[in-house]
Specification:
The protein is mainly alpha-helical. It has one domain (about 1-60). About 30% of the residues lie in helices and about 5% in strands. It has helices spanning about 35-40, 45, 50-60; strands at about 1-5, 30. The protein has a two-stranded parallel sheet. The radius of gyration is 12 Å and the shape is elongated.
């Protein structure tokens, strides 16, 4: 499964997006954080959390 949306829109994904998807299904985040051009400031990323770590927190999947 591939997640390719603007970083700032990740929190808007349905909370049950992966309901019924087995835990062994790999999720690949291909997004990039562009605070000045598109995404605005995401404090956790600015404070050192990796972009993929932030997405993991948002979608509940590694």
């Amino acid at each position: 499964m591939v997640v390719t949306i603007p970083q700032a829109k990740v929190p808007n994904l349905p909370k049950d997006l992966f309901a019924g998807v087995p835990a062994n299904v790999v999720v690949i985040d291909t997004g990039n954080y562009y605070p000045q051009q598109r995404d605005g400031r995401i404090d956790n990323i600015e404070q050192g959390l990796t972009e993929s770590g932030w997405v993991e927190q948002q979608i509940g999947r590694s």
